[in-house]
Amino acid sequence: MKIQIKKLCEDAIIPRYVRENDSAMDICSVEEYELKPGERKAIKTGIAISFPTGNVILIKDRSGLAAKKGITTLAGVIDPDYRGEYLVVLLNTSSESVKIEKGERIAQILMLPIIKPEIEEVKELTDSKRGDGGFGSSGKF
Fold first, then answer.
1. CATH number of 4-113
2. Which of 120, 72, 65, 124 lies closest to 93, judged by CA?
3. H, E, C per residue of 50-92
4. Is there a contact between 26 and 47 (Cβ–Cβ < 8 Å)?
5. Where are the domains of the chain?
6. Dist CA 137 CA 26 (whole Å)
7. Which residues of 18-31 are buried (b: 16+ CB within 10 A; e: fewer)?
8. pLDDT in tens, 66-123
9. Which candidate, 100, 3, 110, 124, places its Cα nearest to that of 44?
């Protein structure tokens, strides 16, 4: 499978896999911005992507930014017919400002196949061992 990536500005960086067995490609910022504590901002990447129907691109956190600086991503589902600039919504969960540098790897893009199930409305669902047990229902180890 091939995807097409278009640079929308000269200094945009084409996403790439850093290691051979990586599942997601790193995507970079084309702008510099200081993200204040609790602030969220859509950061420009300067790229647009065309990829085959039947797939989706998810924008996900970079583990280092999340663990070390408290930067996480919001939103991030890209449909195959979208041709505009990819923006990455970053949220600063830390108590300190974090500077986003131009050219910095700010997120990862992960492509997955999509299964579109047929929807059937029912009065009752089939039984399962778990039932409607939600958060914390499995107990402690």
1. 2.70.40.10
2. 72
3. ECCCCEEEEEECCHHHHHHHCEEEECCEECCCCCCCCEEEEEE
4. no
5. 4-113
6. 36
7. eeeeeebbbbbbbb
8. 999 999 999 999 999 999 999 999 999 999 999 999 999 999 999 999 999 999 999 9
9. 100
